[in-house]
Amino acid sequence: MRIGRIGVSAAAGARERGTAVLWIYRSDADGRLETVPEIERNTWVHLVDPTEAEIGRVAGALGLPADFLHDPLDAEERPRVEKDDAGVLIILSVPYPTAGDPVPYRTIPVGIIHTRDVLVTVCRQDHPVFRAFTAGQVKGFYTHMKTRFTLQFMFLVARYYLHYLNDLNARIVEAEAALQRSMRNQEVYILLNINKSLVYFTTALKVNRGVMQKLTRETYMKMYEDDEELLQDAIIEMQQALDASDIHSENLSNLMDAYAAIIQNNVNTVLKILTALTIILAIPTMIASIYGMNVPLPYQDSPYAFPVLMGISTLVGLSTGYAFWRMRLF
User: Fold this and answer.
1) Which of 41, 148, 249, 290 could be bridged to 117 by S-S, CB 3.0 to 4.6 A?
2) What is the widest separation between alpha-carbon atoms in the chain?
3) Is 328 exposed, middle or buried, given 0-12, 13-18 or 19+ CB atoms closer than 10 A?
4) 52-66, 147-161, 191-205, 279-293 — which is least confidently predicted?
């Protein structure tokens, strides 16, 4: 089973330019990955944002339904496991940092396809988890061990969720410190965007966990005892990430509620002060308004009228202010 494919140098150039690419890897006897020009038995076909032509060539060569390769490219696709005569499709949601987006992290679907002789992965982006495999950072990985790759991939995805959750928690602490110094809208928007990332994470982690638990109940791929232990470890890591996401979400929700209450209390305090000042100034204003009328008034011809009226106004204002202070309106 072979199809024509871009050479190694062309694939590397495409990686640098960020265009749609397809890599074909094969492990040597020592476990080192090497790129090969054609799909062969026991190879790993890795597609990143593939074109329709690439999808058609891979699907035709491996006898896969085109939907197996199209579905992971849909940003709204939910994690699931699907099996037919051509192979097994496993879709997981993986986290990734955004660039130029107010929301720091989002999730993206990744497809892992098991055929009889070839492993296929499909994603819209070249995620760091894949680069961990291609860089030789994952021990015990061989391209012919499709089940082991899938379980190791799940475990690493859970680790990335935990890593990004730690970063989100640090951002929350930083925004909280900024809010304590000032009540600007910018920090509130930062917290809202972090909350969006946590919502994406929580939703994805719950469905990922369901997919992994389904693999323990039904036979989608052959697993040995070591594989079953690795799957259980991956489920535990995914559950820990879900618990951490829930905790951070609850803490962030409580934090935003607390600051909303603080802001409302500050507004109420300002309104009380303004109301008290208005009442204090209303009495001198009333006296000045009365003596500003163009009608005969008591003591209007007295040389002491102005200082007496000013003294009375000041005394009444101070008395009113003192009464408000006793009532804790200031």
Assistant:
1) 41
2) 116
3) exposed
4) 279-293
Q: Please, what CATH class does the domain formed by 8-263 belong to?
A: alpha beta
Q: Exposed, middle or buried: residue 284 (CB in 10 Å: 0-12, 13-18, 19+)?
A: middle
Contacts of 148 (CB under 8 A, 6+ apart): 140, 141, 142, 227, 230
Q: Round to whole Å and give the CA distance between 193 and 203.
A: 16
Q: Is 144 helix (H, G, I), strand (E, B) or coil?
A: coil
Does the reported pTM lie above 0.90? no
| pLDDT confidence bin for 20, thresholds 50/70/90 | low
Asked if 269 contacts 263 with a C-beta cutoff of 8 angstroms, the reply is no
Place of tokens 């593939």: 50
pLDDT digits (tens, 9 = 90+) for 101-127: 899 999 999 999 999 899 999 999 888
Q: How far apart are CA 214 and CA 185, in angstroms?
A: 44
User: How distant, in Å, are the alpha carbons of 22, 74, 97 from that of 91?
Assistant: 19, 11, 19
Paired with 27 in beta bridges are 33
Contacts of 169 (CB under 8 A, 6+ apart): 248
Q: Using only the alpha carbons of the chain, give its radius of gyration.
A: 34
The CATH code of domain 265-326 reads: 1.20.58
Structure tokens at 129: 């988890």
Domain residue limits, the chain: 8-263, 265-326
- In the block, residue with structure tokens 């962030």: 252
3-state secondary structure of 213: helix
Q: What is the pLDDT of residue 59?
A: 92
In terms of Cβ atoms closer than 10 Å to its own Cβ (0-12, 13-18, 19+), residue 306 is: exposed
